[in-house]
Amino acid sequence: MNVIHGRFDQAGTLRSRQHRLTAVDSGTASAPAARVISITSGKGGVGKTSIATNVAVVLARMGKRVLVIDADLGLANIDVMCGLTPRYNLNHYFAGERSLTEIMTSGPAGISILPAGSGLQHLTHLNTDQKRRFLDDLDSLHGRFDLVLIDTEAGISENVTYFNVAAQDILVVTTPEPTAITDAYALMKLLSTRYHQKSFHLVVNQVQQIDEGLDVYQKLTIVSNRYLDISIDYLGCIPQNPRMQEAVRRQKPVVELFPNQKTSSAFEALARALATPTEQAPKGTVQFFWKRFFTLNQGGES
């Protein structure tokens, strides 16, 4: 088995989880809101975008309506990884030239993608008006999708915290490398202490054996149990496989090119874990969280 599940509650209290679809509070009955999952990391090069792409494809094969937002606004990769050449991207959206629907493109297995433009340094610091407009426009899409996956940029920039606070679930990606573990902890610490995020999912990528993933999980839970009031939900590990690099070169998801590989099985197990409702009440709708983000950052960037 490639993905092992575990739960650890640092606060000493079991935090139940319930990943269910929620309704937008509009005063009338409406379509269920999409569940928003950020896929994030403290360090670059840990395979975050590969995980987002392959998990999205598996979820689509499961019958889910999936939207992937490439929120790595300065170094877009999802469209390249899928062999796509979109005509428009988020640069056109934030410039006011195109709507979200107009820049949306179709990817493998029918997933929808909001692509980001690469090499656009000015997008790495969105202003408040841009964030508010994106909030409103994304919220208008709530009935079209079951799940929204946000592939954030790596690190602890304002854009990273913005997209993570917007999500109902935060999936932190790391590897067994000491620097990646340290940076994953730093990211969770920032989101916990400044933005009051208390629940995180964890996946350990590029492991040689299953025990490596468990070791990383234990290290993070030991130190966070000592210094932070958070819970970490271990969703497992993805084995290192040269087929991953081949899939990247061929610009295809590994789950499509090599469906019988252990790595593909691990992605399938991870997708099932993310798609399975548990007992935690969701944070709320997308609107609720982004309003909360602006409340936490009053007087912030302009």
Strand content: 15-25%
Basic shape: globular
The third-level CATH topology is Rossmann fold
The CATH superfamily is P-loop containing nucleotide triphosphate hydrolases
Count all strands and give the number: 11
Q: Which ranges are low-confidence, i.e. pLDDT below 50, for 5 or more consecutive residues?
A: 1-29
Sketch the major β-sheet.
9 strands, mixed
Q: Provide mean pLDDT, rounded.
A: 83
Count up the helices. Answer: 12
Order of helices and strands: EEEEHEHHHEEHEHEHEHEHHHH
Reading off the top of the CATH hierarchy, the class is best stated as Alpha Beta
Write the CATH architecture name.
Answer: 3-Layer(aba) Sandwich
Our Rg estimate from Cα atoms comes to 18 Å
Helix proportion: 25-40%
Count structural domains.
1
Q: What distance lies between the first and last C-alpha atoms, to the nearest angstrom?
A: 49 Å
Order of strands in the sheet with the most strands?
1-11-10-9-4-8-5-7-6
Return the structural class.
alpha/beta
Protein name: Flagellar biosynthesis protein FlhG
Pfam family, one: ParA
GO biological process, one term: negative regulation of cell division
GO molecular function: ATP binding; ATP hydrolysis activity
What does this structure look like?
The N and C termini lie far apart (49 Å). Helix content is 40%, strand content 18%. The longest helix is centred in the last third of the chain and has 18 residues, at 210-227. The chain is of the alpha/beta class and 302 residues long. The protein has 12 helices and 11 strands. The radius of gyration is 18 Å and the shape is globular.
